[in-house]
Structure formats: structure tokens, C-alpha cells
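Please review this pair:
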Amino acid sequence: MRAGLIRNLLRCKQGQSFVEVTLITPLMLFLIFGVVEVGSIISTYLTLTHTTREGANLTSRGTDPNMALDAIIASASPTISNAKPGQWRIIYTQIVQTPGVPCAPQCAWEVGSQIVRGSYAHQSKIGTKVGDAVTLSGIENVVAGQTFHAIEAYYNYGPVVITSVADGLNQTFYDRTLFTQVSGKN
């Protein structure tokens, strides 16, 4: 009787399926969490990109920079939120021609004004204070007297799900958009 029971257990396919499911479940969960994490990374980066573009677009069309920053911060929620200002920084910079310097052969540029929101510990890559010289590719051969508006965004990405997908990434995301003045307003 005992030998027949052991033989029946060895032939049972349900036990084998249970063991296979037990072994494959952690791998499947890791893959699912990894997909969620990669989706979150992409979503965060796209939010930063859209935020900088919209902010630079608004300010270049004459919207007050403080109002433009408020609008883009509100629209980027929940990624960028006033509830967690230590995780992000958005910097508006107005770039103007350096006064008293002729544009021959090229114009010289400087920071005209700057507004910072958020408390993440990164400084502007354009310039940190009014009067700083600005060298950005693409603005060398533009018309004298032109004004530019730049929005820079920093974001400290922390994993949403507990996986090691983001461990190898630089967890500080950065994006910058530069627009020229569209209207006659500065």
C-alpha cells in the first residue's frame, strides 16, 4: 500500500505545476515591477520636457514669468508638487544682449533676470546671477537686441516601486528649453 502511494505522488502533475509556479512567480513579479518602474521613469522625463517647453513658450509670448512658473508647476502635478519642493527645481532665466557691447562679429549675452522655484540643490547651467555671461550654442548668430527665455528643470527621481531598475541611472533628471522673444514685450 505504501509503495503505491509513493508511486502515485511521483506521477502527480499537480505537485510539479505547483513547484514550477512557486519558482517562476518571483521572476514574473520582478519583471512586472520593472515595467512599472521604466514607465514611471519615462513619464517623469516627459513631464519635465513638456514643463520646460510650455514654460519657455509662455514667457516668450509675454506672460509674466511668475505666473508662467505657477502654471507649469500646477500642470506638472503630481510629479512636480509644492508638497515636495526638495525633489525638484525649476529656473526661469531671461537672457539679454550685454549692454554696451557691440555685436561685431557676435553679440555677447548675459543673464537679465532669474526666478527659481523648488529647493532641490542644483544651480542653473546658464548662469546663477544677473549679469553672468551666457554662452549657449545656437544664439551666436541672432539679431542684436534679441531676448531669450529659458526654463530649466531638475528632478530627483526616486524609484516608485522597489526594484533595481533605476539603480544604474543618474537619478537627477535635467531638461532645458530656450525660446526667443515672440512678442514685442520683454
In short: The chain has one domain: 13-180. The first helix runs from residue 2 to 11. The CA atoms of residues 102 and 148 lie 18 Å apart. The helical segments are 2-11, 13-60, 65-75.
